[in-house]
Amino acid sequence: VVYADGVYSLEEIPAEFAAQVGTTKYTNLTAAFAALKNAGNLNNVTVQLIANSKEDVEVPAGFKGTIDLGGYILRGAIGANGSTYNKVELTIQNGYIRLEGRTEMGIIGGRYCTLILNDLDLYTDCHGVILENSAICTVNGGTYVIGDKSGNRLFYLYNDSILGTMITCKATLT
Fold first, then answer.
1. Which residues pair with 137 in a beta bridge?
2. Exposure on the CB side of residue 11, measured as CA atoms within 13 A
3. CB neighbours (10 Å) of residue 2?
4. Taking CA 140 as the corner, what is the angle to CA 139 and CA 142, rounded to the nearest 5 degrees?
5. Closest CA to 145 of 99, 94, 104, 95
6. What single DSSP character describes residue 83?
7. What's the rounded Cα separation, in Å, for the pair 78 and 110?
8. 2 pLDDT band (50/70/90 cuts)?
9. Which of 32, 33, 45, 135 is the most exposed, fewest CB within 10 Å of its CB?
């Protein structure tokens, strides 16, 4: 974009479609998950990011599948909140997640879930991964950075002294 005063500015223009399941494209990840939930199709599904996207995503309870970021950037948080009888099994892989300028949440949060994080580049100004109520997280590769280290943690175990949250990590943490 060139402004009247001759100054250039790079602005990210949202893509018409930012997510895909199979051959069906959606405006964003939220729309893709809503369609999957409405169709009752929550097992063995891969939701692909096909363009950079700015949104907070809530993965439906009972989802068992993958968010493949495809090398793109998700600017927002991901919630993977299952329940005692309807757990989430979620793999998030191959891309970038940014949560900047916000302090009220973690970048990835999970209750009653199994999270597998493969080759992510994660940057946040708040907590990184928040785990509650029997959540299990495995980290395979990637770089995980907290910009504001004043009280924020890469992995935050919340209110889970009895219920058995577990983390296995093989990645660069700063």
1. 115, 167
2. 8
3. 8
4. 95
5. 99
6. B
7. 9
8. very low
9. 45
120: burial class by Cβ within 10 Å (0-12, 13-18, 19+)?
A: buried
Structure tokens at 35: 């369609």
Main-chain phi, psi angles of 151, to 5 degrees: 90, -5
Average pLDDT over residues 28-47: 96
Residue 40 DSSP symbol: T
Q: CB within 8 A of 113, min separation 6: which ones? A: 80, 81, 82, 87, 88, 89, 90, 135, 136
Question: What is the rounded end-to-end Cα distance, in angstroms, of the chain?
Answer: 35
| Closest listed residue to residue 98, CA positions, set 58, 141, 53 | 53
CA atoms within 13 A on the CB side of 161: 0
pLDDT in tens, 132-165: 777 788 888 888 777 666 666 666 666 544 445 5
Edge-to-edge strands, sheet with 57-59: 57-59, 78-81, 106-111, 127-132, 155-158
pTM of the model: 0.82
3-state SS, residue 95: strand
On average, the pLDDT of the chain sits at 80
Tokens of 66: 């993958």
